[in-house]
Automatic annotation (TrEMBL):
It comes from the Bacteria. This is DUF2145 domain-containing protein.
Amino acid sequence: MLALLGLLAVPHVQAGQRCEDTALTPATLQSAMSTAQRVTAELDRRGIQVAVLGRVGQDLSKYGLKYSHAGFVYRESPAAPWQIAHLLNTCGTSNSDLWYEGVGNFFLDDMFSYDALVIVPPPATAQALLARLPQGNVLRSMHDKDYSLVAYPFSTRYQNSNTWVLETLAAASARDATLGNREQAQAWLKMAGYQPSEMELGTFTRLGGRMFKANVAFNDHPNELRYAGRIRTVTVESIKRFLMSRNEGWTVFEIPARP
């Protein structure tokens, strides 16, 4: 495995949330485990073996977005435990790594809410993902340790968590080419019509992010967009929109938080 998180520890990794040492409370643990149980029970009920799973790690409503971070939820056989494979940023740095962990851990990272989004691939893509996900060396072909929260989707200078998910999906979905690296995945995504989400950020926000946060960079964005404050990046919403537009049999459903 690439890495393993302890069940009762809050790790020094993040996917866009605050990077702080936070005591794990019984209420947080209960919410995370309850959400994991609801998610895996619904996957079992529907006979799903692999999917993209989105969580609400922070409030992005001012950008018209709900889900902030995605990973792959899967199990290698009906008797195997459920796992998450996703990319996380090392706190206080511009580096990232790939992590395998339990579904409960996926919902421990200071959630804004405990809603979950599930994007289910068509059979051919599901089989391709199940062949890739247990193989760390294959997953790393689409991984870049240089991290930026707002990485531009058509540049290989940085990568964020959702970019890695999208590029891995491209490699598993492509039927007309074999995609072995990020450059090839991005070329395929551009040809296939992928459109990132666009967020309008003021000058102060952009300069503040670059000066005070190691995990935020804007210098991979085209100048004409960056100087206008139009920041385009991969979001869970843009992944969902792209996959559903392809008419290949992808399905989407939400698992709401319990009141």
